[in-house]
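Can't paste images in this forum, so I'm doing it all in text. The chain is below; anyone willing to post the predicted structure tokens underneath?
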Amino acid sequence: MDWKKIFCNFLGIIGFLGLSTAVHASSGGGEESIWNSWLLTWKVINTIVLIGLLVYFVKKPLVTFFSDRKEQILKDLAEAVEQREEALRLLADYKEKIAGMEEELERMRVELRKSAEGDSEKIMANAERMSSAMVESAKITAEQEVRKARETLKKESVDLAVQMAETMIREKISEQDRKSIVEDYLVKVGGMK
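Text version of the structure:
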């Protein structure tokens, strides 16, 4: 901005106001109105001088302040643009990573399902193997128990048969039959030697 131009425009406006007030005061007539018009003119001149002095002394610091402020705003704006670009870049990176994570999660889900199916199949096969082994073991145990029971039954049958035979022999064999059996036995045993 051109300060001289602004100052000249301001002086023109003040001058126009002062002239119109003077014309208005002079049309009313009388000594008081002239005095009022000089007072008004004097106030206008004082105001113009005051504004001129303010412009003279404050112009340079104000121009420096506003130019520094403008530079700071431009610098902050450039930093904001850089930060926005960085944020957009980070956002794109994170979106890419998230997309990658979703793919990785899906891959892991598929692997877990396959692993669970494989484990399920292994568990089923192991259970089948164990149940077959248990059935086989039960069969063997049952067969052994049956064999033991048969042997026990056979032994008891033999013992019972021996007892019955012994009882029958004792009842049916006389003393003379016993002596002849013992003698025959001794002859056989003696002939063996």
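The chain has three helices and no strands. The chain has a mean pLDDT of 80.
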